[in-house]
Fold these 2 entries.
Entry 1:
Amino acid sequence: MNEILLDARQVEKQFGGIRALASVDVQQAVGETLGMIGPNGSGKTTFVNVVSGHLSIDAGSISFAGAPISGRRPHAITRAGLTRTYQAVRVFSKLTVADNLRTTALAAGREEGVKDSHVRELIHWLELDRRLDAIAGMLTLFEQRRLELAMRLALRPKLVMLDEPVGGLSAVEITHMMKLLGELKTRYSLFVIEHTMRVIRELADRVVVLVSGQKIADGRPEEILRDERVVRNYLGSQGA
Amino acid sequence: MNRMRASKDMWLWISGAALVIGLALATAGNRFAAFIIGIVFLNVLWTAGMNLLYGYTGLVSMMTAGVAGIGAYGTVKLFLDYGWSFWFAVPVSAVGAAAVGVILGLPALRLRGFYFVLSSLVIQVALTLVFIYFPQFTNGDTGITQIPRPGLWLPGFGAVDLTGPGFEIILGLLALAGVAVVYMIIRSRMGAFIIAIREDDLLAEELGIDVTRYKVMVFFISSLLMAVGGAFYAVYTGFISPRSFDVLMSMNIWLMVAFGGRGTIAGPIIGSAILVPIPFLLQELYQIKDIFYGSLIILVTVAMPAGVYGTILKWWRVRRQKQNTAVAPVAIKRMPAE
Amino acid sequence: MVDPNLLIGLSMLTTGLVLGAIFALTAAGVTIVYGCIWLPNAASGQFFLLAPLVAWSLSTAMGWSPILAVAAVLIAGLPFAYLLERLLIRRFYDVPDRNIAYFVVTLGITQILSGVFSITWGQWSDQYNIPPLAEGVVFIGPFPLPANRLIALVGALALLGALFVGLRYHRFGRALRAVFQNREAAALRGVDVQRIYLGAFLLGTSVIFAGGLLYAMAYSFDLSVAWSMGITAFAIMIVGGPGSVLGALVVGMLFGFVQAAVSVFASPTAATLSYLLAMLVILLLRPSGLFAR
């Protein structure tokens, strides 16, 4: 087993008496791609929100790269090397693609901005070269997803948490995005929330299943997707 | 590239300074016109501060006049009662006012959206009441009259006469310096960060930007500009009272930024240049100044949120874009080999 | 002979009751509009003053009977609010963060109205009062209360009661509270949200006008009432919890007694300052707690 990157133990989060996360344990190793699945409202996004510091936890502990991060503010957690995307794509929609990337590069301490060699590689890899002057909000959803990814990768993160990276994309676009994520997986540790089982099956090394805020399964995807409890609680209703 | 821009900028500032000095000298024979120009310069300085705060960072603060008031009263107190040199009293009280502004505003800066606006308004009203009810510092509602203009001794020039156009020149250069400060901030990485905060503060934080820290920095710098403006206003007009720094002033400065074009360098200058002289020039209008400004606030918010300059910029961009619409939509290419 | 201190104390209580009821009513008007439309009406104080100023002109300059004047102002207030909603308020219904835009716009209205007041009524008089509907002092047990203030008190309490009952049991009131709680859910259940917005604005604005008229029936007033009442109503709304009519009632009553007590010992400005501080403390200490939407 590799060194542990993300270590969440006994994490509790309540919203007005409802347990959104009930004593959740999640460990992720360096270089591993971890999938998280579960029905709507099962606490997946809440989990990402507490890890990224957008929500506080009621009990338990979260550490990242060996240091505790629970209670730290989101920008500090980002600087520690953890970045995330959102279910609804999130970029600076009124700024140009170039300004989006420049701001991110500056935030990561790269004074060269868009001319930084790493950022230029990302622009090229994610095929944003010809879109640099466009207003981000005017891009197609797929382009915005790629921009979102480019911004997160420009931060040179140790862990990228992707909240439904193919949500809303067409079949062709999903295939394309899968290819990108497949390459990404070879260089980064990924944490992926998805409803599209194909993504989980092809991408994840290991899968965690959340139902009603509780972890009900944790293992290799081929085992998990056959697991009777998972099928009954989740896949059965999804028809995937 | 950079050197070209730097030299272009340099020429811009030099011609700005020339324009300012020219305006001050051209109106030197007409005290009324000169006074309007002087007040315009002060408002350019104030709107530069408000623009940094509202136009670029997206913070609608209604306590800017109060901060200017602290700067003015502080300077006058040190200058008249303690016998300090005006030129020394200004920076001291400006830093003091900005510090007070940050201390008062700091808890409010944690609030988002409307609650920040409301808190800043509450602080502004409280400051006005403080100005009225602590007459030992402010002489209460009567105000402080006959504040003398300071003298200035410049090496090489000797004593400079500041009763004539000299003071307008100083105000103009000060305004220019204020605009330059904002311009340089916007060109820097801090500028990129505060624009990111304006656009989406949660996303900015998510990208590793310390949002609170930058908000406080912006608040401090803009308070500094407000307070310096307040101090010079006091000695320029010779009279200050709590009414000089009430919430209406905060609103008027906001209006000049919004009317001219928030988040642009030229917009607030245009806003000040258009809106400041109007009540002076139309004497009958002075009576209905509040009605006029209030109506403009509504008009700008409803019909022209980008302001005069912002709207012109938009037209220009749309025109330019129409000329090169030849950009083909990007097709999905094959992945480049790693 | 009655102890004069006791008399002061008792009249303080009755003053507090009258002021509290009027504060609560006005703040209820402000909080209904904010809770429903998300419109923080910074001009509420100017509205509060506008109604009695018009009634004053009708009753003194035109010689109308005070009852007629008050009724006419209340009725004329409806088309005024309707036009405002059609021409201005409606434009922002789809704007995100519209509460900031509304706040700025209503600050503009504040500036316009205070400009209008100072070049019109401000030139005509310093103090205004609406001729009392009834003369004399009424004793309720040991509490002395001038008859006109008793009428104002009864009017304010009756309106507050009607507001409570209406919001709870009337069809419109229930729809309005549904929009308070969840706009999208209300729309899904077939509530015409825009119509509710219009209704809430008409109701809230009329209630503010009524508050101003009741105040003017009980006390003489001047132009400074606009600012102090605007601050007071906002403070009550924020402290009591935006959108909460019950909060407006409780905090409004409390502030009324504070005002009555402070006015005996210090200037009314001290009361205004204390509301400001109360509002600030709540804003800063419970930024999300009380106000989370």
Note: Chain A touches chain B at residues 52, 54, 73-75, 78-79, 83-84, 90-95, 99, 102-104, 106-108, 111, 124-125, 127, 130-131, 143, 151, 155, 172, 176, 179-180, 183 (CB under 8 Å).
Entry 2:
Amino acid sequence: MTLDTFEALSVLSAILGILILGTTLLRTNLSFYRMHTLAIAAVTAWIAHITKEDHLYVVALGVFLIKVIFIPNFLNWVMKKVDVGSDKQAFIAAPLSMHLGALMLGLSFLLSKQIPGLVGGHDSHLGSTAAMSILFTGVLLMLTRRAALSQIVGFLVIENGIYLFAVTQTHGMPMLVEMGLLLEVLVGVMISGLLLFNIKKSFEHIDVSQLTELKD
Amino acid sequence: MNEFGSLLFLPSIAAILSLVIQNPAVTRKFCALAAWIQLVIVLSMLSQILTGHVPNLPFVSGLAVDRLGACFIVLTTFVVASCLTHADYFFQAAANRGDEYSANRVKVFYASTNIFLMAMTTVFCCDSLGYLWIAIEATTLSSAPLVYFERNKYALEATWKYLIVCSVGIAFALLGTVFIFAASQRGDIQAATLNVSELIAGSKALNFPLLRLGFIFCLLGYGTKAGIFPLHTWLPDAHSEAPAPASAMLSGSLLNCALFGIWKVSTVILAANPTAPAFQLVSVLGTITVLAASLLIIRQHNLKRLWAYSSIENVGLMVFAIGLGSGPLFFLQAVNHSLAKVALFLLAGNIIQATGTKKLNKLHGLMENAPSWAAALALASLAVAGAPPFGAFVAEMSLLTLSLTDHRYILALTITIALAISFLGILSHTGKVIFGAGKPNFKHFAEKRAVAIPVLLILCSLVIGLAVDTATWMPGYDHKHISQTQRKVAEVSCR
């Protein structure tokens, strides 16, 4: 099995994603998220280079500007404003969840062989492994962390996994769809960031597991 | 493209103006008027499709309206116009009670409502599954400020859940969309595409395993947004914490958008293989949702949550209609549900404003306090529960008939039992609200004006129930055709 550059980069981004699970310091989480997304932007650019699809360069640039530069900076700013440094009392301790993440990477490797229809010769097996592993990482983040900020990061990681799957398996969806998607993520993060201020203001914490006032 | 632009032109202007105009009283009147004008514009632009002279109206590649979509656009615009007309009363009544909302909040409310209307109109114009996804996510983002309108702890919790649960759910629909795109790339189709019309045209050439996988992800993703059991957890919270006009819009038009997404994806898999076992999942999910919601209706303690669970039940029925492959029945059920449920949420808003409580065990004697509200509430509950002669009865009857001709006896039986349970549950709850001794501190304002819109909606539902011959008017009443082909294919495959 030969390892293409873009496959190596995809796996790198999956590993950087797993590292997000390894700490409960929100600032470090965001740095790892930034690097993880940077690897994904690089994958996009590299695939654009291989396939000669120029529109992917634009998408890579969009990913870089919005998801690598703007969103982590915005979330850092939100974090400073609400004055929360770490995600205490995660449901599963950070080292354990990182190991779970690594286990998921192995599981994704087996699972990605099972996806029907993606077994043809020209499909990137490692690409879909990485994408699926990132997806699992995001789900794990959302399930095990309590701080609202970690939930946002978890959602962003899930979205990255889906995006990576689209890029490696289909070489990018139509340009307008990709751009709409980026815009949607941007607006979604900004709205949830603003909500986060209000959660801090009303509840004096950002622990979403304590939001249980509403029930039947 | 110009036509598509003119479809969204008025709401976009209204959104900007509602942020610019400083006097909330002007904004309230102006936005309601703009929504009714928008309804006229929509009707005149889409009249050719609605009457069936043109099968569909393409704008650009990826954006086109078919007859079902056109019907839904008219319904959505009508719902929003009704809600905004009632919102004028709602805000005035709030001011009368002494808790006037700040001008800023009202501005944001109207601006988001108009953007919300644009996003919903776009949903029904989508031919490309990619655009569809973007438009549906846009409806989530633009309606979040509506849920957060009250600015208190409860609203905050409801909005957070709404945003996170729906966004993650919809993310899975995106994964499904990617799978469908991959299915078209790996099939014998000329060029990879996300356009439903092209996917249907080349449906036999698609890579079926991938399409099936994509379909299941889209079903679960859009199902989260539609409130399919057990992915419905955000729905009662958001519907009960939003102000009444917003709850009415969420229930009467937003749910239809997500269901339309499921319908679009269903048409592709139906074209590729009408007897796909994965597609059978849809009607089963619908039945489970109807049953679960009708059981949950019984044990509700909150007036607005009661209607939210009734919405989940109706979503189940619509999903069931989609599972039978019948677009017209899906629309018939949707239009009847929207009319009755919008009336109910608006009335619930009136009652909550007048009594200051949402708790069902503290509400009683509405008949004594405000007889016209009590009458409207009784009629609207009957309409939503599916009693004749209201439109929902026709829809539910045709749904059950169709499922019987399709030999889905167990599902039909389950739905019948569930409908009976929810009928009893809804009527016993509203009975307690209507009858009994009147409340001494019932402060209502402009009683007649408060029921104008609900009565109008009930009348519409009545007209649909009495005057509509389902076999002739419904857009492309072709479910018989579909179910017959399904059966033929099934017979052949059995041999």
Note: The radius of gyration of chain A is 17 Å.
